[in-house]
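Record type: monomer structure entry
Structure origin: computed from sequence
Chain ID: A
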Amino acid sequence: MRRGMLSIVLGLALAATACGGSGGAQQGGALQGQRITVAAVWTGAEQDNFKKVLQAFEEKTGAKAEFLATGDNVSTFIGTKIQGGQAPDVVMVPQVGVLQQFARNGWLVPLSADVAKEVDANYAKVWKDLGTVDGKFYGLYFKVANKSTIWYNTQAFQNAGVQPPKTWDEFVKVSQQLADAGTAPMSIGAADGWVLTDWFENVYLSQAGPQKYDQLAKHEIKWTDPSVTKALQTLAELWSKPNFMPGGPQTALQVEFPDSVSQVFSDEPKAAMVYEGDFVAGNIATTGKKVGQDANFFPFPAAPGGSQAPLVSAGDAAVVLKAGKNQQAAQEFVKFLATPDAAKVWATAGGFLSPNKKLDASAYPDDVTRQIAKQLIDAGDAVRFDMSDQAPAAFGGTKGAGEWKILQDFLGNLSDVQGAVQTTAQRLEQEATKAYGS
């Protein structure tokens, strides 16, 4: 669920030292001695690996790049920095809604034509569209997630004599076979409402298609639309199956996301599968199990009536602040991020996916990550960003409220499936109307 102008004399030196197509100037070039500050939410290993990207930029350009941790509330942090005259130059924004907020607050400058050129050459169009607000290109997506992966315990599958499913019907059949073999098919960390929104988004994107997904994300169609009730019906039929999750839905509502992964990959697993994004691999590692050996994944299958498997994503976009002290060097940094060279640095370190289609898959550290990355790239413009991250926080991102709470109540009250579907759709529409102001 989870971011005065210093003149830079470029002149002929920039023309002589710029790296066409590779982002930024050569080491010791036009940015020698310049400084930028880059703010992001990342901590721990993510922060360490991003600092390796900053170091690569420094080595390439001669500039200095300092990391600034924002904490979880990126919007408040950056607003305070701008008011205090200490704005960073670049911010890695973790949500589309926050990017749009920054742009409409007048906090951002559009990305340069050079950055746009790199993106046009290296990215599917959807990523540029996601970074565009009111016709202006502000955000470069650098690190993203594939949120259409279902992870499974390989030993549990072997014990039940089942194979990873490729279709929804196979998924339901495999789930029943696992239950019959004495293992609950699915662990769901429903105490975290964002897990349930991710389930909904995958089913909805598959069934309704990208165009309707975009319309619902903007509340251009109502949450009582038949496409919404169809997706809720599909989830209700799956989630209400006997023995589908350990202890049933009421128990699942007490399980947080990290624990849902542990339930599948502990020494005495309570379930065989867990749905969530590629970041599940990091949680698996904490259990002592090995991805690719004890654990593997299969793509979220196309839901009933869906024409293709969904690809829901999330990610962090680099933006340049108007109040930053070094916009030109900041633009060069974002241009660097748009190149496969920058993506390779973090991809090699692990825990990273890039939307850059020019990045050689061999940069990823293992076959499983390469498969997940390929799934993301192959989806092309059919990729859609996490819907709840696009919504106003009151609806799509607040614990105990809005969509999170309504879907938790939905999961906990499936004794009357039809009644639950209709009531949930109506509640979603009521809360969306309040949050979107429409």
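Annotation 1: The two ends are 25 Å apart (CA to CA).
Annotation 2: The mean pLDDT is 92.
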